[in-house]
């Protein structure tokens, strides 16, 4: 049940069908090229797109813009200590800034880093240090239909196999991403987190939590892991984070802000080293790329993220979207994750081969049908990989109401009804770096639309 009301509104507009078709053509059938004003319900990402609370806006007025020693930063340190249990905070402008600070501090060329699944920016920052990123998801992470409760878990067995091959001395860090964004936003259990802690002790590695969706993960743990049935989400979050040495955080997710991030740790020496790199890349150690008002808003947001009413409403809204679609036979990744619903475009449009981008075709049709924007995560975004043809519908926090979600369901259902008429695409203009082509490449329909 939604336990908030609106105090400020922002009009949105659904362009007419012909305008949507023209917008698609103008955008080169790449939804990143659309004007946001032409999007009715925007499910491109849950990152930095949510609504702040009245308390956060009030806190922004109090932002202390001092270059050094800002009182806003002290409030952030207090919030991180209270909600997440870490004593030291190195601020950064967003998650990838924090990744640069941390991985530039703890990695060296030739290192191997393990993760349940590296998110794209994490993989890129590991690679940027000359290290190799190796994923160790549990096998069920890639099962579209199975009902596993913690399909985001880290496979310690797989990790052991990798360590036997490369040598423990070459694995200085193990990362656990909660929830596992690249595995359909699936949660990680506390039991698995404890196993990762033991494994890190065994191989003498630093245990890093990519905590950007830590509150959503804690909600799943409370509801699914027997031991925590009577705990609060705040207690679960503290418990889960307590096993890690370091947390790397994008405040744009469970910090409930539009920009911001940080590295949080316990070890004084690591803190001092990371702080120096933070000063170099992000700014002085009490602002790190954020204004004082951004920092104030994040300090409040971290506390709000673990409030029971908020988090239940948030995760259940995402589930509602997924289940309403699944009921109609639409191929939805099961169970629904914490921040997004993933559809299998390979199954939705089985007549379109991978080289004609079924995910992109589906995302384009969803916009054409109802002005809804989502993102392709298949052969267009990840060329030359054997990933499934998924599209992601990520739900911004506290932004959309049930009517918007119902509009999305109706839109996708209408596309489902005419799926056999939908054709594939070809890339007609590609930027030099293929790995990031999905942000700017242009496509053209191959006939049937
Ligand atoms: N780690 C994870 C698991 C993420 O999902 C993201 C961002 C980052 C790190 C980087 O954080 O964007 O603040 O620099 N994910 C966004 C998304 C972009 O759409 O999933 P950032």
From TrEMBL:
One matching Pfam family: Beta_elim_lyase
An annotated GO BP = aromatic amino acid metabolic process
Q: Tell me the ranges covered by the Aromatic amino acid beta-eliminating lyase/threonine aldolase domain, including all copies.
A: 42-409
Q: Does the keyword Isomerase apply?
A: no
Q: Sorted alphabetically, which keywords does the UniProt record give?
A: Lyase, Pyridoxal phosphate
Cofactor(s) recorded in Swiss-Prot or TrEMBL: pyridoxal 5'-phosphate
A GO MF term: carbon-carbon lyase activity
PROSITE patterns the UniProt entry points to: BETA_ELIM_LYASE
**So what family is this one in?**
Belongs to the beta-eliminating lyase family.
The name on file for this protein is: Tryptophanase
């Amino acid at each position: 049940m939604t336990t908030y009301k609106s105090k400020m509104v922002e009009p949105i507009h659904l362009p007419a069908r012909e305008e949507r078709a023209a917008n698609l053509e103008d955008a080169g059938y790449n939804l990143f090229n659309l004007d946001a004003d032409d999007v009715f319900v925007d499910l491109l990402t849950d990152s930095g797109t949510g609504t702040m609370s009245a308390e956060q806006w009030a806190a922004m007025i109090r932002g202390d813009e001092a270059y050094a020693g800002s009182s806003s930063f002290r409030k952030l340190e207090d919030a991180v200590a209270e909600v997440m249990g870490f004593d030291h905070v190195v601020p950064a402008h967003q998650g990838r800034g924090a990744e640069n600070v941390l991985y530039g501090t703890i990695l060296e060329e030739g290192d191997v880093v393990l993760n349940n699944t590296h998110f794209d920016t994490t993989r890129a920052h590991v690679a940027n240090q000359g290290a190799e990123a190796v994923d160790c998801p549990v096998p069920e992470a890639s099962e579209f239909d199975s009902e596993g409760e913690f399909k985001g878990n880290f496979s310690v067995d797989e990790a052991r196999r990798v360590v036997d091959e490369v040598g423990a001395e070459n694995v200085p860090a193990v990362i656990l991403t909660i929830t596992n964004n690249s595995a359909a936003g699936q949660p990680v259990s506390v039991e698995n987190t404890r196993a990762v802690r033991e494994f890190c002790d065994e191989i003498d590695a630093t245990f890093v939590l990519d905590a950007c969706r830590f509150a959503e993960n804690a909600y799943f743990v409370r509801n699914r892991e027997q031991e925590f049935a009577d705990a609060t989400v705040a207690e679960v979050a503290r418990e889960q984070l307590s096993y890690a040495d370091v947390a790397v955080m994008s405040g744009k997710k469970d910090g409930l802000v539009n920009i911001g991030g940080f590295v949080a740790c316990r070890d004084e020496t690591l803190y001092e080293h990371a702080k120096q790199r933070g000063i170099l890349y992000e700014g002085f150690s009490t602002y790190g790329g954020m204004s004082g008002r951004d920092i104030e808003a994040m300090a409040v947001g971290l506390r709000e993220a673990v409030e029971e009413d908020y988090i239940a409403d948030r995760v259940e809204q995402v589930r509602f979207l997924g289940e309403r679609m699944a009921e109609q036979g639409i191929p939805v990744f099961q169970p629904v994750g914490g921040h997004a619903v993933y559809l299998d475009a390979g199954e939705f449009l089985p007549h379109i081969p991978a080289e004609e981008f079924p995910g992109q075709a589906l995302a384009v049709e969803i916009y054409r049908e109802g002005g809804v924007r989502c993102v392709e995560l298949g052969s267009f975004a990840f060329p030359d990989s054997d990933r499934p043809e998924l599209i992601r519908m990520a739900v911004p926090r506290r932004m959309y109401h049930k009517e918007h979600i119902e509009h999305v369901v109706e839109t996708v259902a209408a596309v489902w009804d005419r799926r056999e008429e939908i054709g594939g695409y070809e890339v007609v203009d590609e930027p030099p770096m293929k790995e990031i082509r999905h942000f700017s490449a242009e496509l053209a329909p191959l006939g049937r639309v």
